[in-house]
TrEMBL record:
GO BP terms, alphabetized: response to metal ion
InterPro entries membership: Ion_tolerance_CutA, N-reg_PII-like_a/b, N-reg_PII/ATP_PRibTrfase_C
GO molecular function, one term: copper ion binding
SUPFAM superfamilies in alphabetical order: GlnB-like (SSF54913)
Gene3D superfamilies named in the record: 3.30.70.120
Protein name (database record): Divalent-cation tolerance protein CutA
Coiled coil start-end: none
């Protein structure tokens, strides 16, 4: 099995987040993308404290597809420096992990 991967990113508006999610699934770069309701983010940017509303995306994909997922996020994202964090899924329901593999290409 190709290593399953969880990629996290945020998006400033729900419509854009949902559009990105649909594009990733349509392109078979992700088996599933969860778009969470608005969350409040607090962060430092260019030496100043900031806060804003964002939507968290949980992208289920495979390690081999990470470069394409990253590129798709960067192409669609309005931020100068978007959050893109990936972590290997080391354990999970075998059937679900197999589904991630079979649903992506």
């Amino acid at each position: 099995m190709n290593d399953p991967l969880l990629v996290l990113t945020t998006y400033p508006d729900q419509e854009g987040a949902e559009r990105l999610a649909a594009e990733l699934v349509r392109a078979r770069l992700a088996a599933c993308v969860n778009v969470l309701p608005a969350v409040r983010s607090f962060y430092l940017w260019e030496g100043r404290e900031n806060s804003g509303t964002e939507h968290q995306l949980f992208i289920k994909t495979r390690d081999a597809l990470y470069p394409q997922v990253e590129s798709a996020i960067l192409d669609a994202h309005p931020y100068e420096l978007p959050e893109i964090i990936a972590t290997t899924i080391s354990r999970g329901l075998p059937g679900y992990l197999n589904w991630i593999e079979s649903s992506t290409s």
